[in-house]
Amino acid sequence: HFRSHLNLGLSYLARAITAARTRAGAAQSDSSGSAAEANSRKAGRHFDQACELNPRDALNFYNRGRLYELRADNVRAVSDYKRALSLLRRNSSFKTRLRQRIQRLEAGPR
C-alpha cells in the first residue's frame, strides 16, 4: 500500500536529515555521511513506490521533492514540487510556501 511506502520514506528522510545535520555540525564523519546516504537511498526507493502507487497524492511528490532538495538535486526537487502543487486543489498556506520554495530553488544559490 502506498501509505506504508510514504511512512517508511518519511522515516528514512528524517534519519537522513539528522545524519546530514550531525555531519555538518561535526568534523565530516564518514559514519554520519554513510548513514545519511543509506537512509537517503532507502527513502528514495519508498517515495518512488508511493508516487508510482498513488500518482494523485501531492504529499508523495512533495516529500520526494524534499529528498531531492536534501541531495541538492534542485531540478528534480522543483519538478516534484510543481507536480505536488498541480495536485493540490485548495489555496492554502502550504501551497503558498510551496510556490515560494520553488521560486527559491529556481533562483539558485545566492
Task: Write structural notes for this entry.
There is one protein chain. The chain is an all-alpha fold. It is 82% helix and 0% strand. It has 5 helices and no strands. It has helices at residues 2-25, 30-53, 58-70, 74-87, 93-107. Helix 1 (2-25) runs antiparallel to helix 2, helix 2 (30-53) runs antiparallel to helix 3 and helix 4 (74-87) packs antiparallel against helix 5 (93-107). The longest helix has 24 residues, at 2-25. It is globular.
Biggest sheet features: none
- The overall strand count is 0
Mean pLDDT: 89
Proportion of residues in extended strands: under 5%
Would you identify the regions where 5 or more consecutive residues have pLDDT less than 50? none
Principal-axis shape = globular
Helix share of residues?
A: over 70%
Q: Structural class of the secondary elements?
A: mainly alpha
* Gyration radius, in Å: 14 Å
Distance between the termini: 41 Å
Pattern of helices and strands:
HHHHH
Counting H and I runs of at least 4 residues, what is the number of helices?
A: 5
Which helices and strands occur, and which strands form pairs?
Layout: H1 2-25, H2 30-53, H3 58-70, H4 74-87, H5 93-107
Helix pairs in contact: 1-2, 1-3, 2-3, 3-4, 4-5
